[in-house]
Amino acid sequence: MALAVAGNQRGLILAGNVVAQSAQGKAPRKTGRLKRNISAGQPFSVGQYAGRIHVGTNVEYGAAQEFGSGLYSTIGPRRKIRITARRAKVLAFEWAGKLNAMQAAGNVKVIRLKRRTKAQGKFAFLSFFAHVDSPGVHPHPYLRPALSEKRAIVPTIIWRSIAGALRGMGRSG
After folding, report:
1. How big is the CA angle at 53 (ends 29 and 68), to the nearest 5 degrees?
2. 145 and 73 within one domain
3. pLDDT score recorded for residue 50
4. 3-state secondary structure (DSSP) of residue 143
Protein backbone atom coordinates (compact mmCIF):
# COMPACT_ATOMS: atom_id res chain seq x y z
CA MET A 1 0.00 0.00 0.00
CA ALA A 2 2.92 2.32 0.69
CA LEU A 3 3.99 2.01 -2.95
CA ALA A 4 0.53 3.08 -4.14
CA VAL A 5 0.62 6.13 -1.85
CA ALA A 6 4.12 7.00 -3.11
CA GLY A 7 2.91 6.57 -6.70
CA ASN A 8 -0.09 8.81 -5.96
CA GLN A 9 2.18 11.52 -4.54
CA ARG A 10 4.52 11.30 -7.51
CA GLY A 11 1.52 11.50 -9.85
CA LEU A 12 0.21 14.57 -8.03
CA ILE A 13 3.58 16.28 -8.42
CA LEU A 14 3.72 15.42 -12.14
CA ALA A 15 0.12 16.54 -12.72
CA GLY A 16 0.67 19.73 -10.71
CA ASN A 17 3.70 20.55 -12.83
CA VAL A 18 1.70 19.98 -16.04
CA VAL A 19 -1.00 22.40 -14.86
CA ALA A 20 1.61 24.93 -13.65
CA GLN A 21 3.39 24.82 -17.02
CA SER A 22 0.11 25.43 -18.82
CA ALA A 23 -0.70 28.35 -16.48
CA GLN A 24 2.73 29.86 -17.15
CA GLY A 25 1.91 29.92 -20.84
CA LYS A 26 -1.41 31.65 -20.17
CA ALA A 27 -0.24 34.19 -17.56
CA PRO A 28 -0.33 37.83 -18.59
CA ARG A 29 3.18 39.21 -18.69
CA LYS A 30 4.65 42.62 -18.58
CA THR A 31 7.87 41.77 -16.75
CA GLY A 32 7.52 37.97 -16.62
CA ARG A 33 7.59 37.89 -12.81
CA LEU A 34 4.12 36.30 -12.50
CA LYS A 35 4.96 33.63 -15.09
CA ARG A 36 8.26 32.77 -13.38
CA ASN A 37 6.56 32.36 -9.99
CA ILE A 38 3.78 29.93 -10.94
CA SER A 39 4.54 26.51 -9.51
CA ALA A 40 3.11 23.37 -7.94
CA GLY A 41 3.52 22.89 -4.20
CA GLN A 42 4.01 19.66 -2.28
CA PRO A 43 1.23 17.04 -2.28
CA PHE A 44 -0.75 16.57 0.92
CA SER A 45 -3.25 14.00 2.16
CA VAL A 46 -6.97 14.67 2.37
CA GLY A 47 -7.88 11.14 3.39
CA GLN A 48 -6.35 7.73 3.74
CA TYR A 49 -5.95 7.22 -0.02
CA ALA A 50 -6.54 10.71 -1.43
CA GLY A 51 -4.26 13.66 -1.94
CA ARG A 52 -4.13 17.15 -3.37
CA ILE A 53 -1.57 19.60 -4.63
CA HIS A 54 -1.82 23.37 -4.88
CA VAL A 55 -0.79 25.15 -8.05
CA GLY A 56 -0.41 28.92 -7.91
CA THR A 57 1.87 31.85 -7.25
CA ASN A 58 3.13 33.87 -4.33
CA VAL A 59 3.21 37.09 -6.38
CA GLU A 60 1.03 39.66 -4.62
CA TYR A 61 -0.88 40.68 -7.75
CA GLY A 62 -1.52 37.11 -8.95
CA ALA A 63 -5.07 36.98 -7.58
CA ALA A 64 -5.91 40.39 -9.08
CA GLN A 65 -4.78 39.12 -12.48
CA GLU A 66 -6.79 35.89 -12.13
CA PHE A 67 -10.01 37.36 -10.71
CA GLY A 68 -9.78 41.09 -11.49
CA SER A 69 -9.80 43.81 -8.87
CA GLY A 70 -11.71 46.94 -7.93
CA LEU A 71 -14.68 47.62 -10.21
CA TYR A 72 -13.76 44.58 -12.34
CA SER A 73 -13.52 42.01 -9.55
CA THR A 74 -15.27 38.69 -10.15
CA ILE A 75 -15.02 37.90 -6.42
CA GLY A 76 -15.56 40.20 -3.48
CA PRO A 77 -16.88 43.77 -3.50
CA ARG A 78 -16.71 45.94 -6.61
CA ARG A 79 -15.37 49.37 -5.73
CA LYS A 80 -12.52 51.70 -6.57
CA ILE A 81 -9.23 51.00 -4.84
CA ARG A 82 -7.42 53.84 -3.10
CA ILE A 83 -3.70 53.71 -3.85
CA THR A 84 -1.36 55.65 -1.58
CA ALA A 85 2.42 55.87 -1.53
CA ARG A 86 4.17 53.32 0.71
CA ARG A 87 7.85 54.02 0.19
CA ALA A 88 7.63 57.74 -0.55
CA LYS A 89 5.55 60.72 0.51
CA VAL A 90 3.69 60.94 -2.81
CA LEU A 91 2.88 58.98 -5.98
CA ALA A 92 4.45 60.27 -9.21
CA PHE A 93 3.17 59.69 -12.76
CA GLU A 94 4.21 61.09 -16.11
CA TRP A 95 1.88 61.26 -19.09
CA ALA A 96 0.97 63.45 -22.03
CA GLY A 97 -2.43 65.03 -21.95
CA LYS A 98 -4.85 66.95 -19.82
CA LEU A 99 -5.31 66.46 -16.13
CA ASN A 100 -8.52 68.47 -15.74
CA ALA A 101 -10.87 65.53 -16.47
CA MET A 102 -9.25 63.38 -13.78
CA GLN A 103 -9.38 66.22 -11.27
CA ALA A 104 -13.04 66.91 -12.08
CA ALA A 105 -13.89 63.23 -11.54
CA GLY A 106 -12.31 63.43 -8.09
CA ASN A 107 -10.01 60.49 -8.78
CA VAL A 108 -6.84 62.32 -7.82
CA LYS A 109 -5.60 64.98 -5.48
CA VAL A 110 -2.82 66.84 -7.27
CA ILE A 111 -0.03 68.08 -5.08
CA ARG A 112 2.26 69.50 -7.75
CA LEU A 113 2.54 69.58 -11.54
CA LYS A 114 5.83 69.90 -13.34
CA ARG A 115 5.98 70.43 -17.12
CA ARG A 116 8.48 68.07 -18.74
CA THR A 117 8.83 67.90 -22.50
CA LYS A 118 6.68 68.53 -25.53
CA ALA A 119 5.80 65.19 -27.15
CA GLN A 120 3.50 64.85 -30.17
CA GLY A 121 2.10 68.34 -29.74
CA LYS A 122 1.11 67.79 -26.10
CA PHE A 123 3.00 68.57 -22.96
CA ALA A 124 4.07 65.66 -20.78
CA PHE A 125 3.50 66.34 -17.13
CA LEU A 126 5.19 64.83 -14.12
CA SER A 127 2.43 64.84 -11.54
CA PHE A 128 2.58 64.10 -7.85
CA PHE A 129 -0.46 62.75 -6.01
CA ALA A 130 -1.37 62.16 -2.39
CA HIS A 131 -3.55 59.26 -3.58
CA VAL A 132 -5.26 57.82 -6.65
CA ASP A 133 -8.63 56.06 -6.69
CA SER A 134 -8.01 53.30 -9.22
CA PRO A 135 -10.84 51.40 -10.94
CA GLY A 136 -8.68 48.23 -10.68
CA VAL A 137 -7.74 45.73 -13.36
CA HIS A 138 -9.80 43.51 -15.61
CA PRO A 139 -9.42 39.77 -14.94
CA HIS A 140 -6.87 37.86 -17.02
CA PRO A 141 -7.46 34.25 -15.92
CA TYR A 142 -4.52 31.90 -16.28
CA LEU A 143 -4.84 29.26 -13.51
CA ARG A 144 -8.47 28.24 -14.04
CA PRO A 145 -8.11 27.92 -17.83
CA ALA A 146 -4.94 25.87 -17.34
CA LEU A 147 -6.74 23.47 -15.02
CA SER A 148 -9.72 23.23 -17.39
CA GLU A 149 -7.38 22.49 -20.29
CA LYS A 150 -5.52 19.75 -18.40
CA ARG A 151 -8.44 18.35 -16.39
CA ALA A 152 -8.84 15.29 -18.63
CA ILE A 153 -5.18 14.26 -18.47
CA VAL A 154 -4.60 14.77 -14.70
CA PRO A 155 -6.27 11.49 -13.58
CA THR A 156 -4.35 9.59 -16.28
CA ILE A 157 -1.03 10.99 -15.05
CA ILE A 158 -1.84 10.00 -11.46
CA TRP A 159 -3.12 6.50 -12.34
CA ARG A 160 -0.08 5.79 -14.51
CA SER A 161 2.21 6.87 -11.71
CA ILE A 162 0.42 4.57 -9.23
CA ALA A 163 0.51 1.68 -11.73
CA GLY A 164 4.23 2.27 -12.30
CA ALA A 165 4.90 2.18 -8.57
CA LEU A 166 2.93 -1.06 -8.19
CA ARG A 167 4.69 -2.67 -11.17
CA GLY A 168 7.97 -1.86 -9.47
CA MET A 169 6.75 -3.85 -6.45
CA GLY A 170 6.58 -7.03 -8.59
CA ARG A 171 10.15 -6.63 -9.78
CA SER A 172 11.66 -6.15 -6.35
CA GLY A 173 9.87 -9.12 -4.75
Report:
1. 35
2. yes
3. 86
4. helix
Q: Residue 143 burial by CB count (10 A; 0-12/13-18/19+): exposed, middle or buried?
A: buried
Do 45 and 17 lie in one domain? The reply is yes
- Which residue(s) pair with 45 in the sheet? 51
* Cα(11)–Cα(16) distance, integer angstroms: 8
| 102 and 151 together in one domain | no
Element (H, E) at 93: strand 91-96
Distance, in Å, from the CA atom of 17 to the CA atom of 148, rounded to the nearest integer, reads 14
Res. 98 pLDDT band, cuts 50 70 90: low
**Residue 102 and residue 72: Cα distance in Å, rounded?**
19
Same domain, 98 and 118: yes
Asked whether residue 73 falls in the same domain as residue 2, the answer is: yes
The confidence score (pLDDT) of residue 10 equals: 96
Which pLDDT score, from 0 to 100, does residue 128 have? 77
Instruction: Decide the pairing of beta strands 44-45 and 51-52.
Output: antiparallel
Domain enclosing residue 173, as ranges: 1-78+136-173
Terminal Cα distance for the chain, rounded: 14
Q: Per-residue pLDDT tens for 147-164?
A: 999 999 999 999 999 999
